[in-house]
Amino acid sequence: MADFEEVEKFVLSGNRSEAAEVARDYRDSYFGDQEKFLQANPNEKPEDFEKREHAWSNITGQVVDALSGLYCRAPQREFNETDAQTFEAVYERSQFDLGQIECDAMTRLLGVSAWQAVWDESDEENEQVKLRLITRDNFEVWTVDGRPDLPEFVLVYLWVPGDASPKRAKLYSADFVFEYQAASANSSQLKRVGSDPNPSGRLPFVVAHNRVITDNFYTPGIGWGLVPQNWLINKKLTELTQVQLDRSYPQRWAKGVEPGESITTGTHRIIYLTTADAEIGQLSPDLALGEVYDTIDRDIQLLLATNGVPENAFRLNVSATSGVQVRAEQEPLVADRRKRTHVFEPVEQAVANLVADVHNVHSSGDRI
Fold first, then answer.
1. What local confidence, expressed as pLDDT, does residue 198 receive?
2. Residue 346 CA to chain centroid, in angstroms?
3. Phi, psi values for residue 76, rounded to 5°
4. In this structure, are residues 249 and 52 in contact, taking their beta carbons and an 8 Å threshold?
């Protein structure tokens, strides 16, 4: 068994694992928040970097979305006739079909995602199970010793928008639920503020894994290879933008002109040089922009190929392509989608079982 005292020591510290911190950055990148990950060049002052024009592309979102099409069409689920209305109400209220699109994308990107079932009492006349999607950056798992596939404790962070760190958290086991909150207004450390028995006698979670569990509960997602390469491409795009601006607004110089003398340049102006050795000129970067564009294009093509995304899903140089060629290029996506059904079929069944378990514990009506 996992050591509860060690688990709670981690919870009370207010720390999060490095993997959870990285997962939050990768999730932000997926949602298009790319600019904040751009970095200044060596020896460049931060204030100078902030003044420069920045450029970026959300290749991460493009790649993950191209691959995550399993739930583009809502699946047909079959329930017992007497239970169908209850399940359909839970799924509709929880926007489960839309959530599964997100779950597929986040699981592929970050390696794992989780569905949590809670008993929603916000509507007294219509109390029922509600499903909540939790991404990798918002939960930690401790497994049974020797069983990396069997969670024993699950910690869920409860964020308040604008906070740099979570101020509340809940720790679940099959037997209990502990609640924590910040020890003080300015503290990142937490204190235990409540505990309740777990009425269902099971963890109220279903975890989707990007790959089969072997020796680690946290299966790898493509984000760990995809996102850093996206950031590198964004850096090149930013540097290329600076070169373009330097060419458009080159650095001008003057020779043989009295210090402090103002020289106004521009179209429809005549400049009088009053000394024999006076000169004016301008400096611009000596760089073949076409070669830089080609390098970035090759970087993107390699990133797409590495992740099994056909070029026509994110093509920069559009050219006439036959229908046969398009279908052939799309075949890796079709094959990936077929394999993806084997990932989510067990998730669908496990979520249905979880909904039934939580409903049967809390509902005063018929069991399902």
1. 96
2. 23
3. -90, 115
4. no
**Span 37-73, pLDDT tens digits:** 999 988 889 898 898 889 999 999 999 999 999 998 8
pTM of the model: 0.85
Q: CA 25, CA 250: separation in Å to the nearest integer?
A: 36
Give the separation between CA 148 and CA 150, rounded to whole angstroms. Answer: 6
Q: What is the 3-state secondary structure (H, E, C) of 11-68?
A: HHHCCCCHHHHHHHHHHHHHCCCCHHHCCCCCCCCHHHHHHCCCCCCCHHHHHHHHHC
SS3 content of the chain, % helix, strand, coil (to 5): 40, 20, 40
Query: Which residues does the chain have with pLDDT short of 50?
Result: none
How far apart are alpha carbons 156 and 151 in whole angstroms? 13
Residues 6+ apart with CB under 8 A from 34: 56, 57, 58, 60, 230, 231, 234
Tell me the β-bridge partners of 261: none
| Backbone phi and psi for residue 234, each to the nearest 5 degrees, phi listed first | -60, -35
Q: Which two tokens stand for residue 294?
A: 């080609």
